[in-house]
Write a structure and sequence with these properties.
Blueprint (H helix, E strand, L loop, with lengths): L2 E4 L2 E4 L9 H7 L3 H7 L16 H17 L3 E7 L10 H12 L3 H11 L2 E3 L2 E2 L2 E2 L3 E3 L9 H9 L3 H7 L3 E5 L2 E8 L8 H16 L10 E5 L2 H4 L8 E3 L2 E3 L1 E2 L1 E4 L2 E4 L5 H8 L2 E4 L6 E4 L2
Parallel strand pairs: 10-13
Antiparallel strand pairs: 1-2, 3-9, 3-10, 4-7, 5-6, 8-9, 11-12, 14-15, 16-17
Helix pairs in contact: 4-5, 4-6, 7-8
Length: about 290
């Protein structure tokens, strides 16, 4: 009998050894999902690929934290971090090592996991034309049920890095939001946030991922009168690059302005128009 354990969760996989066909093995890989999600090492602030969690719950959590801070007379500095080619850059050796050390996946299950992510090929096809086939040395298959979940547990340790610097965070797949509330009297001291982003950037590099400061967004949220006394002209350093503060950012598809008035969101939604195609009997929704 073989089983893999993680924290208090035990999944018996002895019967899986009787399945040898590729479709059966790929189907059985879905048994990893309940095991991974029940493990304490899976980030509790990851809202993707979990039953009962979504972009809506992620937004509600972050916006609620910002509003609570504003009610206490604080401003919230939020960074929306961007990871370059995140899913395609996952290192297979690190992934399998993390599966074993952090999630207790071992033995036959670990061999199946290694087989699932390695020795994959890809090509590009346009019409009848097709490129040469190339072997993939990194990455997880995004078109599968398991691939995105594997990425989520691959980056789960980032939560411990952020927590050690005293900041709050939330994740949705490869979207990472770092934020913290500041009293207006402390508005000029962002050094501890920069130390956190530096540590996060270093962790990404150590795990074969790259933080892209050019695509990272920064916003300071708060009541209008509080923001008036917050000098954000110098921006903030992220991965050795200076990132300017904007007056809004798009978070998981929703535009949030600095005062959370949602004026820009309403303006964006008002641009929605319905155009009717003469050849169709139903309207086509187009976004401006």
């Amino acid at each position: 009998m073989r089983s893999f354990t993680a924290e208090n969760n035990v999944v018996d996989i002895a019967y899986m050894a009787t399945f040898t066909t590729v479709p059966a093995v790929l189907g059985l890989l879905s048994f990893f999902q309940p095991h991974i999600l029940s493990c304490n090492n899976f980030s509790r602030f990851q809202s993707a690929y979990r039953p009962g969690y979504s972009t809506e719950t992620a937004l509600l959590k972050v916006v609620s934290d910002i509003q609570l801070a504003a009610g206490e007379g604080k401003c919230t500095v939020l960074l929306g971090l961007d990871i370059s080619a995140a899913f395609d850059a996952v290192d297979h050796a690190i992934l399998c090592k993390r599966a074993e050390s952090d999630f207790g996946i071992c033995g036959t299950a670990l061999k199946w996991l290694h087989s699932f992510v390695t020795d994959r090929l890809q090509y590009i096809a346009i019409g009848s034309e097709r490129s040469e086939t190339t072997a993939l040395s990194t990455g997880v298959p995004q078109g599968s049920i398991l691939g995105p979940l594997l990425f989520a547990f691959y980056v789960s340790p980032i939560g411990r890095v952020v927590h050690s610097h005293g900041l709050l965070y939330h994740q949705y797949a490869d979207d990472v939001m770092l934020y913290t509330a500041l009293l207006p009297s402390l508005n000029n001291d962002l050094a501890f946030i920069e130390r956190c982003t530096s540590a996060v950037s270093s962790w990404f590099l150590e795990n074969a991922l790259l933080l892209n400061p050019d695509e990272t967004e920064a916003v300071i949220f708060g009541a209008r009168q509080r923001l008036a006394g917050f000098d954000s002209s110098s921006g903030i350093d992220v991965a050795s690059s200076n990132v300017s503060f904007n007056d809004s950012l798009k978070l998981l598809g929703v535009t949030l302005d600095a005062t959370l008035s949602f004026d820009k969101r309403v303006e964006r939604c008002s641009q929605l128009h319905v155009s009717y195609k003469s050849s169709a009997s139903h309207p086509a929704i187009a976004y401006c």
